[in-house]
Amino acid sequence: MVKKERFDRSDIRKLNAISVLNQLRRQGELSRAQIANQLGLTRATVSSIVSDLIDSSLVKETAFTEGVTGRPGLLLKLNPDCGCMIGVEIDLDRISVIVADLGQEVIWEAEEGIEVGIRPEKCLSMAEELVKEGLSRGKDRGLDCFGICVAWAGLVNRYAGELSYGPTFGWEHVPLKSTWEKRFNVPVFVENEAHAGAMGAFHFGPTEGTLNLIYLSIGYGLAAGVFTDGVLLRGQNGYAGQVGHSSFADNQIVCGCGKTGCWVTEVGARAVLRKLADIGLNLPSNDAVDIVKSIDDLLQSGDARVKRVLESVGRQIGRGLAPMVQTFDPSQVIIGGRLGRLLKHAEPAIRKGWEEEVLPQMSETLQISVSDSHQDHLMGCLATVFDAVMKNPPIGAKG
Ligand SMILES: [Zn+2]
After folding, report:
1. How remote is the CA of residue 273 from the centroid of ligand 1, in Å?
2. Fold of the 84-196+379-389 domain
3. What percent of the chain has pLDDT over 90?
4. Whole-angstrom Cα distance, residue 156 to residue 105?
């Protein structure tokens, strides 16, 4: 028999506190009156919650501001001196790390190339060194770490805290959460890289107020993070969004997952390299760090063949997006990931491919854009840690 759950006053105060913290995350600095107005809460409720948040050091008062009634009020913001968060992205050819304070100002970031085909133990040991350095950079600022989040391509079981299967890496059952929590003594989270990208775009991207968005992450792998009505769809294990392995083309090309004709075999980084090779442009396939730059350099030099290849890939991205748009009815689609920088050159082709396939009524208000930021995934990792920290704010039952 299911136990009946009841919300009490303390639960409601916690939910309101989470809303206050989220408003400050989105908008930076706000007065108590502005928060009360935006959340539809009484000024007394907000003042009481803010008092607890200030006592717990999560929030601090800053400068005075003129209120609408002419009465000066103190502005509030997330306290950057309260602690730090660490985001890590493990890609096929590099590890990237970012450290930010609670106010989400980046304190330190670093990137290290890794050998393609590296064993998980060696890769994780390199990542650990970067995390250690990040923790030490935080300590230099007097900041303890709230948590670490690692973004990975593949089937990431966020509940078990492991990379269950990485078709791009060929790794299986890499338990990161338990290992790193013992090693670093802070909470550790794992995210699929597309989910992390979606979190980054949702919280930090040019999508303010967007509740329905699809973030398509394209690199050597291809996956999607989907927000529906403000909720990231993760699925029972956290595997949702593996759209790159949907059957797409009758090309007999064997994908990393073992099947043939997956969408990623036509639009992922290896597909771009293959299509360039087909027209005689052989770029070194084992030097992935430079691939995006090498292709971008060719584009900048005015090589029309490269542009044509990217346009052809872009059109197939657009075609593959259409069923997703029809399934989820988003207001925004953002295409990011490692190839984002290159796909900027193919935006019209992406739009064309998608317009050819999608029901026209569903495209009228849809915005589609390419993100060339290299930080979507890392910022999403920070948002994951932030959400975990804020899930249970230290709020009393008073008020
Ligand atoms: Zn596949």
Report:
1. 17
2. Nucleotidyltransferase; domain 5 (3.30.420)
3. 61
4. 27
